[in-house]
Amino acid sequence: VLKVLSHIDSILRSPRAPPLIYRRSKGPVQNYIKENGQECGFEHLPLTVEMWADQLMALKDLHRSLRKLSLELVPWHTADPQDNRESIRVEDLQFIVDAILEEIENKEKNSQTPPLPTLFAIVSHFQKLFDVNSLNGVYPRMNEVYTKLGEMTNAMRNLHELLELDSSAPPTVVVDTVGKLCDIINENVTEQVQQLLGTQDIHSIIDKLEEHERFFPPFQALIQDLLCLLEIRNLDDILPTVRNLK
Fold this sequence. Notes:
Elements: H1 2-12, H2 45-73, H3 90-110, H4 116-129, H5 138-162, H6 171-197, H7 202-229, H8 238-245
């Protein structure tokens, strides 16, 4: 027993031991005497050990709380390798705290993330611009807008190349160029129609169309009557049939 007490006393007197552990006795004589004859001052040791036991149990709860906090603040960190240990050391807790502090310091130095009210205002503005009724519809609408934007970008790039425009030309220039091209095509079509009808005067074209409307119905009726009288079906058979009748 004396040897055990001597070993305990040497631990208590160690420079690494907290001052709370060792207290020199104030009583006249103690029941436990060390081998060197000096009195031992650890009558309060059971209370201290009980306090330590409570603190060790509290370390587990503190470790669990720090792990939850770590998952909230730095969820991309891998799981703590000490999670499955039966005993938790102060070093384990310090490791988690240091990781959280380091991440927060890096965010303060490098992060340009706006505050939550600003982010909320941005999302609300997006919902108003693109008619999104709920937060669940924000991401699908973002994807839709991104797809449409890509299609429009490709179309504008192709139009720039086809119209031989500079890539920096704004959309208004592209629209004006397409409009001029359509005007040129329409003018060419008008000229071709005029050449086909043999006139350069629009009024003459109108007169010819009116003559056609007056002439064609009676002519069509005459041809139908001839086909019925001659009992034939084709226009090409009218003249041969009439010659035979002569």
